[in-house]
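INFO  loader      accepted 1 record
INFO  loader      residues=111
INFO  predictor   begin
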Amino acid sequence: MYAMVVAPGERLRDRHGVVRLPVWCTGFYSGLVMEFREDQPRWQQVAQVIRERIAEGTYRPGSRVPSENDLMQEFGIARMTAHKTMRALREEGSIYTVRGMGSFVSIPEST
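INFO  predictor   done
INFO  writer      dumping tokens
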């Protein structure tokens, strides 16, 4: 994590256009949390961000994707929300999980 000076209440946009709010933990900067819309479940919104990152090449086929713990920290979500996100991505075939190793971007089948 890198140091950043942000005024309390200031909103930031990441390179995906997602509005993020600074999170302050006992006076130390601890990361950014996604500001969620109310019209869609949080796990769907996080899954969409992961899908966009896969589509733009941030996560390449065969590369590791963030763990549930990483998602919890990055997006400020509960473990069950992170679990639902990963499960949805697995069920649609965007990622696969190797027990004890992590989750990875699925390699597209060549036609």
